[in-house]
């Protein structure tokens, strides 16, 4: 599937600009339509500082959106402020009408974003969600992607969604992980990785397979470490499934990744 419509979540936070710039770059490179959705809770004073005036915050967001999307087919929309539940529900309902959703990782002290905002979007929108870390800039996404492969349904969905974001001539990796001393699992995984590589090749994506042995650092830390070693600008994972890795309860690995990511992560559910 080609990428033709993107939704980027915007608010009054300082990281909104990073999300907007990344989404605008993706829209330009893919010839896609971009919609900016301004949505945040009516938060009290907290670690994020006093809440901005709603009208002024919305106006500033719209102005920044118009400037960043010059030459694009783009639209800015604002949702009415509400409590956590209302913000999550209205954003999730709206997000179902796009190929891809771009949001930011929630800082622990961010009082203007519901704590479970990302999880609800990933699980309930029916769309892949690209989450950008709360620190750093991301001028490119998809030139050095890593696909996490566990021979499971969520991994297969991740492949289909992640292919939308892979740049031409990308240096891609497909990483599988197995537990130490599991020789049968390692052999089966090697064949599964071969098929996964062939699948990407059919879509003109050249990728290399890698098998990693799980150690005491755990599955998600192993993926994060490998992403750092590869200088990955995208990590694609099947989210909230638990399939293929029985040592994880359903969703625990995805929640860990949402807290500790260091590179853009595409979550497919």
UniProtKB/TrEMBL annotation:
SUPFAM superfamilies (UniProt xref): Adenine nucleotide alpha hydrolases-like
Organism phylogeny: Bacteria, Pseudomonadati, Pseudomonadota, Alphaproteobacteria, Hyphomicrobiales
InterPro entries from the UniProt entry: UspA (IPR006016)
Domain (UspA) ranges: 184-266
Protein name: Universal stress protein
Origin species: Candidatus Rhodoblastus alkanivorans
């Amino acid at each position: 599937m080609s990428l033709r419509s993107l939704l980027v979540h915007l608010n009054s936070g300082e990281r909104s600009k990073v999300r907007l710039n990344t989404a605008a770059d993706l829209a330009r490179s893919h010839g896609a339509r971009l919609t900016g959705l301004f949505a945040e809770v009516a938060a009290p004073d907290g670690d994020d500082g006093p809440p901005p005036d709603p009208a002024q915050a919305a106006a500033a967001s719209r102005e920044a959106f118009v400037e960043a999307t010059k030459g694009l087919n783009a639209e800015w929309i604002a949702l009415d402020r509400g409590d956590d539940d209302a913000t999550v529900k209205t954003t999730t309902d709206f997000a179902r009408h796009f190929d891809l959703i771009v949001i930011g990782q929630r800082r622990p002290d961010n009082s203007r974003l519901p704590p479970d905002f990302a999880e609800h979007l990933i699980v309930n929108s029916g769309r892949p969600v690209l989450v950008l870390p709360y620190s750093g800039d991301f001028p490119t996404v998809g030139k050095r992607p890593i696909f996490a492969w566990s021979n499971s349904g969520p991994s297969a969905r991740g492949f289909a969604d992640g292919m939308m974001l892979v740049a031409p001539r990308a240096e891609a990796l497909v990483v599988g992980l197995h537990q130490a001393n599991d020789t049968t699992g390692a052999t089966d995984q090697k064949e599964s990785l071969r098929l996964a590589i062939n699948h990407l090749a059919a879509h003109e994506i050249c990728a290399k397979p890698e098998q990693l042995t799980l150690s005491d650092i755990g599955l998600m830390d192993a993926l994060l470490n490998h992403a750092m070693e590869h200088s990955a600008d995208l990590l694609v994972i099947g989210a909230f499934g638990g399939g293929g890795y029985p040592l994880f309860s359903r969703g625990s690995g995805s929640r860990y990744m949402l807290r500790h990511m260091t590179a853009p992560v595409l979550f497919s559910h």
